[in-house]
Write a structure and sequence with these properties.
332 residues, alpha/beta, TIM Barrel, nine-stranded parallel sheet, 11 helices, globular
Length: 332
Amino acid sequence: MKVTMPEFVTFCRNVFVPVTNVCRNNCKYCTFRRSPDDPDAKLMTLEEILPILKKGKDAGCTEVLYTLGEYGEEMPEYKQWLSDMGYASTVEYLAELCRNAIGIGLLPHTNAGVLNYTELETLKPLNASMGLMLETTADLDAHVSSPGKVPSTRIKTIRYAGELKIPFTTGLLVGIGETLDDRIDSLQLIAELHEEYGHIQEVIIQNFTPKPGTPMADWPPPTDEEMMQTVLIAREILQHDVAIQVAPNLTDPYVLIQCGATDLGGISPVTVDWINPEAEWPDMERLRKMVRDIPLRERLPIYPKYVKEGFCSDLIKDLVLSLSDEEGYRKV
């Protein structure tokens, strides 16, 4: 397959807020997840989050990425933390956090794990976009004791987002035990969902990185060739209007751009990558060097197509328009 080099590569300047690390899943590669009785377990308060949002706004960010563990409410201690803060559910709290971000001038992008239709419906008006990594359609040993990683459950959430017309991010986690056929099946499924609903704005092709202290600490990461192959296959399977995103803090983006990648995701000037804290974000100077002669173009968390097609709600429409240029990218 011949790949044409893109006219430019996009990225989004964001602030990364890990609302809580309490999670019902027990993925064998994760260092983010905590149980409520762990001394490092955390549910961030509004008072802790607001200064981070303001710092991000002052640094020129347009997006706040709210990420968190999944359905902590299944654990009584976490549910009590929420209750003590005056909230009945994580989604109710997230809605308040989104409203605060919008008030400061940041567009929320929430990735809260698996959500049902009603929960997505609640968060839709308050988010420029949302996300959930499919990871894989395969049932893997890496996801044993992780009810939220059952493929059919994740697919249902992505489908609900399509029904609700939420600009959506999903993706594959490459190298966690899936086969090449599994990767192809996963990409074909995403393409089918986009064909039906038209809501998949980007697909992340992310490489697994082994973390010390996890059951998969000695598991080999995918090779450069596997990553290149996966991006090439993704570009062949996915529709032309779906961006392929790669993480410049985890891999060499230029090689993957040559294979069809067109986006570098969220880059934060003020916060770490809380899922991969050992991997620093490149600053703008470094990012420009990494992509060599390809121009960079900044976007919002909602892609231009969805700005033009009016996917954003009345609650964020004015903010989106104030931050975007005539083409729907970040206003310079």
